[in-house]
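[recover] target loaded
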């Protein structure tokens, strides 16, 4: 898999990938999520492809204190082949280079199956509760 930055022609394929991976939600407009990322830290919006086909994505970020990863996805027919791990290793390198000391990842409670994947990469559950407040509604 080749990992590179997101380019505008990738948009539809990326949204299809997120849908196939059950990462879209009615309250998050994927086009607006992409627009915001393209305006802010676009260098941390990664796309993984094999040949012509986009099979993976991830939106990473660094706020000067912690790093984050959202929309980590590997297309269903390419899962279990090491691509997710490869994408995470790429993100860890990029964030380390920026001086980021720790990555925090939010996992939907309905998706706790993915914990096994992160545990395998030495991510551990923190003793925290994640809370949020919507500032800009997408709908
Ligand atoms: C999570 C996801 C990105 C993982 O990508 P992947 O390419 O399938 O994972 P990999 O093949 O790189 O797995 C790497 C290792 O983790 C292990 N692993 C993967 N999923 C696992 C799971 N659910 N439980 C335990 N271990 C798991 C693999 O066995 C592999 O271990 P190995 O190196 O010892 O063989 C992918 O399954 C996905 O896109 N899921 C849907 C979207 C999603 O939930 N995203 C995360 C949002 S927080």
């Amino acid at each position: 898999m080749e990992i590179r930055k997101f380019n505008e022609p990738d948009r539809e394929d990326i949204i299809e990938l997120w849908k196939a991976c059950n990462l879209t939600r009615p309250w998050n407009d994927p086009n607006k999520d992409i627009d915001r990322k393209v305006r802010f830290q676009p260098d941390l919006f990664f796309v993984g492809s094999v040949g012509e086909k986009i099979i993976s994505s991830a939106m990473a970020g660094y706020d000067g204190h912690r790093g984050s990863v959202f929309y980590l996805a590997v297309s269903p027919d390419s899962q279990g082949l090491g691509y997710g791990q490869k994408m995470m290793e790429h993100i860890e390198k990029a964030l380390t280079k920026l001086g980021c000391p720790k990555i925090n990842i939010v996992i939907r409670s309905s998706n706790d199956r993915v914990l096994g994947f992160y545990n395998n990469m030495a991510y551990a559950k923190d003793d925290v509760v994640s809370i949020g407040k919507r500032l800009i509604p997408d709908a």
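[recover] notes: The CA atoms of residues 15 and 119 lie 27 Å apart.
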